Amino acid sequence: MGYHEWKSCIDACLQCAAVCNHCASSCTKEEDVKMMAGCIEMDMQCAAVCYASAQLMSMGSPHAKQLCSICADICEACGNECGKHQTEHCQECARICKECAEECRKMAA
Amino acid sequence: MGYHEWKSCIDACLQCAAVCNHCASSCTKEEDVKMMAGCIEMDMQCAAVCYASAQLMSMGSPHAKQLCSICADICEACGNECGKHQTEHCQECARICKECAEECRKMAA
Amino acid sequence: MGYHEWKSCIDACLQCAAVCNHCASSCTKEEDVKMMAGCIEMDMQCAAVCYASAQLMSMGSPHAKQLCSICADICEACGNECGKHQTEHCQECARICKECAEECRKMAA
Amino acid sequence: MGYHEWKSCIDACLQCAAVCNHCASSCTKEEDVKMMAGCIEMDMQCAAVCYASAQLMSMGSPHAKQLCSICADICEACGNECGKHQTEHCQECARICKECAEECRKMAA
After folding, report:
1. Does C49 contact B at CB distance below 8 Å?
2. Do A51 and D56 touch (CB under 8 A)?
3. Whole-angstrom Cα distance, residue D76 to residue D98?
4. Taking the CB of residue C35, how many other CB atoms lie within 10 A of it?
5. Is the ipTM here above 0.95?
6. C7-108 has which CATH code?
7. Which of A71, A61, A78 is nearest to A6 (CA)?
8. Residues of B whose CB is below 8 A from C63
9. How far is CA C103 from CA A99, C12, C51, C82, D27, in A?
10. pLDDT(C1) > 80
11. Which of A81, B77, C89, D82 is deepest in the core (most CB within 10 A)?
12. Looking at residue B88, what is its pLDDT?
């Protein structure tokens, strides 16, 4: 098992990492940054773990499933936090995080 | 300028990072690993810079263009190295590297 | 040239990446997060490029010098931004960023 | 809990990531690359997870302990693989991996 078999989860993780980086950066430019503080924090953690998960999967690592299990938890938490805000980047990020959490749950199963 | 305007280059960089990780790992499993040594080395460097480029672009960084210029050089060098080998993962990696080099050149221009 | 010759710059970049991640996260917990917005943004970009620079240097890449030149610029910009704030994590980050900028300038020379 | 409390584990993970990148790259330059194939593979996976662990710890993430538990397993596996080879970079990497595994086990406890 490896890159081609796991491609939909790899793509979801890479997409999620990018959207989290975008959301965190966009949150710092919002009028009420304080309201976005939790979102920025979760985005940063989520981007870090999503990319590491994509790396292990791309390498066909036997540890990929374990990492995807943690990744699913973080994506879900990040999606919940982003989902509280009506800004476009937060709504987009919430949606992508939830899709990624689902892909990672399937990988980890 | 940022995530949405730069999305095709971000996607190319993320795809390239994943395929390089896959190619490096696959190269270590080939019969003649020694022949693949240069490919593994380039894949590792290319994955590192592609991901950093995707990060800066996703964050809308004013330094993204500069980094994409280096990324284009590394993708081109990696694509040339991979292109020497007939294995499927090397051919796939060569193609993706060249597409990414082109996207990064456009970004850097 | 590679890991052992470049070790002081590698260590500076890794330290800088970690301190930037810490500073960004700590900034989101400050009373006046809005004042910290620019600092969070710079921290995120700086961490990304510092880690990629450490990677290329550790791999002994011929592209390491080029990347360290960009890294020096980002570290300097991040250090200047962090230096505006009196919080302990910003002052610590400003100092580490400036040391890293100096190490990267030497590498790039 | 966060950056300063977890600093010895963060430093161990960053050091381990750098040494793994160095070892993988050095392995590709050995006379008998085929013998090093497993080492290169483990180095790549170990570097990826060590850096993600350092990131989560630097951010003070509540998920850091979980990730350090996986990281300890991968560092141990990588250290065992590297320990089979007498080259200086493999012996150095084996030692750093084992120290990092120990730090990560303490974090995860």
Report:
1. yes
2. no
3. 6
4. 14
5. yes
6. 1.20.1270.360
7. A61
8. 45, 49, 70, 73-74
9. 42, 7, 14, 19, 27
10. no
11. D82
12. 96
> How many other CB atoms are found less than 10 A from the CB of residue A36?
30
Two tokens, residue D28? 């590709």
First to last CA, chain C: 14
CA distance C52 to chain B (A): 6
**Does residue C44 sit at the A interface (CB-CB below 8 Å)?**
yes
- Residue of chain B nearest C41, judged by CA positions: B59
DSSP A12-80: HHHHHHHHHHHHHHHHTTSS-TGGGHHHHHHHHHHHHHHHHHHHHHHTT-TTHHHHHHHHHHHHHHHHH
Amino acid letter, residue A102: E
B1 touches A at CB < 8 Å:
no
Please compute, for residue D59, the number of CA atoms within 13 A of its CA located in the half-sphere on the CB side: 30
Is A69 a residue whose pLDDT tops 80? Answer: yes
In Å, how far are A75, C86, D55, D72 from A41, measured between CA atoms?
12, 21, 12, 25
Closest chain D residue to B36 measured between Cα atoms? D28
- Please enumerate in sequence order all residues whose Cβ is within 8 A of that of A91, keeping only pairs 6 or more positions apart, or say none: A82, A83, A85
pLDDT per residue over D22-76, tens digit each? 999 999 999 999 999 999 999 999 999 999 999 999 999 999 999 999 999 999 9
Helices B37-58 & B64-82 angle (0-180, nearest 10): 160
- Do D21 and B40 lie within an 8 Å CB cutoff? no
- D21 CB neighbours in chain C (<8 A) are 3, 55, 58-59
- CB of B45 closer than 8 Å to CB of B74: yes
Chains with at least 3 CB pairs less than 8 angstroms from chain C: A, B, D
